[in-house]
Design brief:
Blueprint: E1 4-8, H1 16-27, E2 33-38, H2 43-55, E3 56-64, E4 67-74
Parallel strand pairs: 1-2
Antiparallel strand pairs: 2-4, 3-4
Helix pairs in contact: 1-2
Length: about 80
């Protein structure tokens, strides 16, 4: 079972959630799942763009009101 890391980025404004995601990705092995919580309006598009770089695979992205939760598998 892959290791999962929770990144609580609630209250952080752009670009901080993606900076925190990238920092966690650098410290973690491929196959790790990052569960990222964010209420930043740009987070959804930023998470997609970060995964498009080939560093991660966006497994899911759900929204509940302002809050988004992304599950990203590191490649």
């Amino acid at each position: 079972m892959p290791n999962e890391i929770l990144l609580d980025c609630l209250g952080m404004k752009c670009p901080r959630p993606i900076i925190e995601l990238a920092k966690a990705a650098r410290k973690s092995p491929p196959g790790t799942i990052l569960r990222v919580l964010s209420d930043d309006l740009a987070f959804e598009s930023d998470a997609n763009a970060w995964c498009d770089t080939g560093k991660g695979k966006l497994l899911s992205l759900s929204k509940e009101g302002q809050n988004a939760t992304a599950l990203i598998e590191l490649l």
